[in-house]
Prior knowledge:
With 164 residues, the chain is of the alpha+beta class. It has helices at residues 2-19, 46-53, 131-136, and strands at 23-28, 58-59, 66-76, 83-94, 101-108.
Amino acid sequence: MFRALAFAVVVVGSLSLGACAPISTYSGFQTVESDPKDVKVGQDTKSTVRGKLGSPSATSTFDNNTWFYMNQIKERVAFRKPTVIARNVIAIAFDKDSEVVQSVHSYTLKDGKVIAYNDRETPTRGREMTILEQMIGSVGHGGILPRDQEDAGIPGNRPGDRRN
């Protein structure tokens, strides 16, 4: 009896410790055969960089001559919120005319900045109507059908035999 209880405690304890092991998630650019540090300034071109590293994760919004290769690693322990433990961004800038690499910059998680978003909403003019006001708001304002044939030519009104 004591051995069975001790065995059950050991099994439950080892399973619960295994559940607390962190789960790592990798996302973004993954280096397979070459490293972004292998890109040589003044020698490599867009085509050689694409051949070494593949397509970029993103390009610059205002200038297509800057390529970004990004990746990050998140860790999650049990039911806790995942935390980013590593983030790398490699920015490769090319010359406009010759498409030769001008600079290679490497940024990590420490270089990132936290941005405080403004969650306020811009108010609209007028007042907000309830759903009941929207449904019965047009009652008594002339209705949907044109009043007479003169109104049939007004944009938005459909001519036809509605009021014959």
